[in-house]
């Protein structure tokens, strides 16, 4: 089993660092490019949501991203101390409505749910703990 | 990300090179809105060199599609790389957008 942890601060400029670390990890673990791009999209979405909407104070907070790779299965555990947010309860976008009436929202969450094979949310010790699994085959 | 504009017949073509993400989607949004407000509502975004798109980028395309459609115009996308097309499919965008394989087909 391979594992790696990335810790970032709740600033949007930290996304570049996160993306670079993810790219290195995917290269080292020989993860196919399409999966790497999908994971990038998922993490960008989740971390951006945490940074933009998660905190009511101006303090610096840590966001931890822990990756494990075993048996063609990538598990990502995202831990933050932002306010409670369970994406499994978030509204889905309406794709069946005409384009002019469609609301532009919920798209990122929809993508996260579509891309990942398993999602588990837990609120514990004032932290959001989101466990995401992507199967490679 | 780099954006280059050109004109072919009725169509304004935006060539998008690199990553379209949370840090830079505003540049594309601003450009598209400026063109549409100035009456350039037949637009092709050439994605042949786009290597990544986040949901913030997808939202810009959706916004531009709504704006062009509501003013009687068109927004076409062309030459999506396979990995990007996969994201469009997951997002349900392949049924909403008109996507051409090449720029030549888009401007016909």
Quick structural summary:
The complex is a heterodimer of chains A (137) and B (108). Chain A is built from three helices and five strands. Chain A is α+β, with helices and mostly antiparallel strands and 137 residues long.
Report on the architecture of this protein.
The complex is a heterodimer of chains A (137) and B (108). With 137 residues, chain A is an alpha+beta fold. Chain A has three helices and five strands. Chain A has one domain (2-135): Heat Shock Protein 90 (2-Layer Sandwich). Chain A has a five-stranded antiparallel beta sheet, covered by helices on one side. In chain A, helix 1 (14-28) runs antiparallel to helix 2. Chain B is α/β, with parallel strands linked by helices. Chain B has a single domain (2-107), classed as 2-Layer Sandwich (Transcription Regulator spoIIAA). Chain B is built from four helices and five strands. Chain B has helices spanning 25-37, 55-70, 82-91, 103-107, and strands at residues 2-8, 11-20, 42-53, 74-78, 98-100. Chain B has a five-stranded mixed beta sheet. In chain B, helix 1 (25-37) packs parallel to helix 2. Chain B is globular, with a radius of gyration of 12 Å.
Our Rg estimate of chain A from Cα atoms comes to 15 Å
- Residue-averaged pLDDT of chain A, rounded? 92
Largest sheet of chain B: 5 strands, mixed
CATH architecture verdict of chain B: 2-Layer Sandwich
Structural class of chain A, by secondary structure, is alpha+beta
Query: Which superfamily, in CATH terms, is the homologous superfamily of chain B?
Result: STAS domain
Q: How many separate structural domains of chain B?
A: 1
* Largest interface, Cβ cutoff 8 Å: A-B, 23 and 26 residues
Show unreliable segments of chain A: none
Q: How widely separated are the two ends of chain B? A: 27 Å
Please state how the strands of the largest beta sheet of chain A are arranged side by side.
1-2-3-5-4
Order of helices and strands of chain A: EHHEEHEE
Biggest sheet statistics of chain A: 5 strands, antiparallel
């Amino acid at each position: 089993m391979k594992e790696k942890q990335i810790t970032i601060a709740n600033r949007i400029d930290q996304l570049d660092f996160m993306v670079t670390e993810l790219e290195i990890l995917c290269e080292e673990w020989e993860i196919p490019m399409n999966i790497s791009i999908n994971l990038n999209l998922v993490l960008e979405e989740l971390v951006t949501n945490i940074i933009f909407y998660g905190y009511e104070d101006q303090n610096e907070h840590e966001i931890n991203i822990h990756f494990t790779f075993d048996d063609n299965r990538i598990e990502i555990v995202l831990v933050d101390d932002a306010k409670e947010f369970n994406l499994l309860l978030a509204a889905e976008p309406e794709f069946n409505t005409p384009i002019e009436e469609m609301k532009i929202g919920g798209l990122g969450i929809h993508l996260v749910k579509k891309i990942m094979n398993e999602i588990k949310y837990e609120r514990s010790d004032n932290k959001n703990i989101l466990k995401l699994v992507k199967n490679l085959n | 990300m780099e954006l280059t504009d050109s004109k072919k017949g009725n169509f304004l073509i935006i060539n998008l090179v690199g990553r379209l993400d949370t840090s830079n989607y505003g540049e594309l949004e601003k450009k598209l809105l400026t063109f549409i407000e100035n009456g350039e509502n037949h637009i092709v975004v050439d994605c042949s060199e786009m290597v990544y798109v986040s949901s913030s980028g997808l939202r810009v395309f959706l916004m531009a599609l709504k704006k062009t459609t509501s003013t009687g115009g068109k927004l076409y996308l062309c030459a999506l790389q396979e990995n990007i097309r996969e994201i469009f499919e997951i997002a349900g965008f392949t049924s909403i957008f008109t996507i051409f394989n090449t720029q030549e087909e888009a401007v016909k």
